[in-house]
Structure formats: C-alpha cells, structure tokens
Design brief:
This protein is mainly α. The protein contains ten helices and no strands. The longest helix has 27 residues, at 127-153.
C-alpha cells in the first residue's frame, strides 16, 4: 500500500500546486533512498518541475525537508498559541485540545515516517535531525513554554514554564511513541487520543495546578 505523503491531503497552495508536488515527490524519494542519497534532480523529475523551481521555492534539500515538517509542527502547537487561561477549567480544556493536536500529528503515518528517516540518517546525515530540531522541536517547545507561562501568570499553574511544558509532554506521550516508531504497535484511535488527553490534562493540573 502506498504511504500517504505529508502534504498529500492539502498543500499550502492547493493539492495540485508545484509546491505540493515537490513536497510529495521529496517525501517519496526520501522514503526510497534515505536523506543522503536523495537528489534534487530526481525530486524535480517526479514533481514535473525544474531544479530552478525547487531552489527558488525552498533554497536547498534541507529547505524541502524543513517545509515538510514545519507544517505538521505548526498543527501540533496551534491550540497552544491562544490558550484560554481564564480559569482552571478553561485551561484544562486548552490542555485537552493541545494534547489531541500533538498526538494526532505525532502518530500520523507520514510523521512517523519522517521520524524514522531522521533516525536512520542520524550517523550519515545528522543535518536531518538538526532540521527537525529547528523546525519542530524548538518552535513547539517555545509555544508550550509560553502557554505554561501564561497560565502561571494567570494564577492557574505553579512552577517554571519550560519544566512544566516538558512534564506535560512526558505525561502525554510516555513511552507510547517508541513502539509505534518500531512498528510493533498501532497508533491509538481518535477516541482513545481524546480520552488519554483528557486524563493527562486532569493529572497535570492535579500535580501543578493552583486553586
């Protein structure tokens, strides 16, 4: 069965745009050859564009991969960008939304594939992991920290913002991601994600909430 490309459902300029074709072609080539052996000329051929189009749009191979992961990372952090911290109950609802958004993307088959690519390329092409760190881990970590800082300022939480962000993520993911990356477990269903996120929000506020 053909794996779904990261932007196959909707690219930034529409599913048939040159940008989306490039992203989907890049994902296919990465899957087949790994990062080190991926060539922009093959991406261009599959996307039916010129190499000049690729460099104009993305700048480099790193730029293509950065774009692949940046959109998914943005979806993860979107609910954390405008958190409701008016009350403990309102923040609990925010945490539930954030939890579902993170887990939906983290367990998406395309995102799992990108993690596997980064791990497989860690020795020969460590720049792939650095691209993932710059475009996903760091911005998502900042967004989570800012969300926690807002809740602390509002008197909903007690603690240090970045530490609280890390604890929430640890509660949310636990060790579940590793078996999925290894292919020995199936991602949870949407209803299970929602239930787990609600439980994590309640546990987190019991541990770190005020009032």
């Amino acid at each position: 069965m053909k794996r779904r490309s990261p932007d196959s459902e909707c690219g930034p300029d529409g599913p048939g745009s040159a940008r989306t074709r490039i992203l989907n072609a890049a994902f296919e080539v990465l899957q087949e050859h790994g990062y080190g052996a991926t060539q922009t000329r093959e991406i261009a051929a599959r996307a039916k564009v010129s190499k000049r189009d690729i460099y104009s749009e993305f700048g480099s191979k790193d730029g293509i991969f950065a774009a692949l992961i940046a959109a998914r990372a943005e979806r993860m952090r979107r609910p954390a960008m405008e958190p409701d911290v008016a009350s403990r109950e309102a923040f609990a609802a925010t945490l539930r939304r954030v939890g579902v958004a993170i887990l939906e993307q983290l367990y998406d088959p395309a995102v799992v594939s990108m993690f596997r690519l980064a791990i497989a390329s860690a020795e020969d092409a460590p720049e792939l992991a650095r691209v993932m760190d710059r475009n996903a881990f760091q911005p998502n970590g900042r967004a989570m920290g800012e969300m926690m800082a807002g809740a602390i300022k509002a008197g909903v939480l007690a603690g240090e913002a970045s530490a609280l962000a890390g604890r929430f993520f640890a509660l949310l993911t636990g060790g579940a991601h590793v078996p999925i990356l290894l292919g020995i477990a199936e991602p949870p269903k949407p209803r299970e994600l929602a239930r787990h996120s609600a439980e994590v929000a309640d546990d987190f506020l019991r541990l770190h909430g005020r009032g």
